[in-house]
Description:
The protein is α/β, with parallel strands linked by helices. 24% of the residues lie in helices and 29% in strands. It is globular and about 45 Å long.
Amino acid sequence: MGGIDVLRCGIVDYQVMAESMKGLQKRRIADEVGDTLIFVQHPEIVTIGPKAVRDNVVVDGYPTCLTDRGGGITWHGPGQLVVYPIVKWEVGDQSIRGIIGRLESWAIAALAECGVSAYRDDAMQGAWVDGHKICSIGLSFLHWVSRHGMSINIDTPGSRVQDLECCGIPAGTHTSLSKLGYKKDDRGLTINFERVEENLILTCEENLGRVPNNPVDWSPEMLV
Length: 224
């Protein structure tokens, strides 16, 4: 079982990170770097995927940008943890649905460590809690190296997520853990960005089949 590098990036503009991911993906294809996990937050942006473009989806009242991951529209912003796996998937794992399933299981396992019972729903890929979607997944592949990834809404501002009709799901369906009342677990421990990240690292080996290396601070400028 191989290892996976873990990069903590803080807050980074979405488009800056998107370009950095392309660079890392090319380097992973060439075996210049190993498998890598990126943990990051973005300033508010609504990303518009190819499906939303085909469906002529219009987003009002939010900053937007186009993206080349699968899916429709996705909100990113404060209080949301974004995880990008730049991973070279082995022959036995080369199934898009299978890889998405691994990410779903990973999010569900990490949330369980926080005392939150998340689950899958046939309505849309991702992870759901109490009838609401709190985790979105969208990927892009080149030579079976993944780019983009998943986002988990932990403590998002106001009703910015709830007011947006994402991926064809009615407004009010997407939300965050805090809006559902999941601010502390039954031991009184706070459910926050750091806690969810810690539990994703804890459950990485079981769900992604890779042993996480010690996290390091990283910024996209280091790729230049």
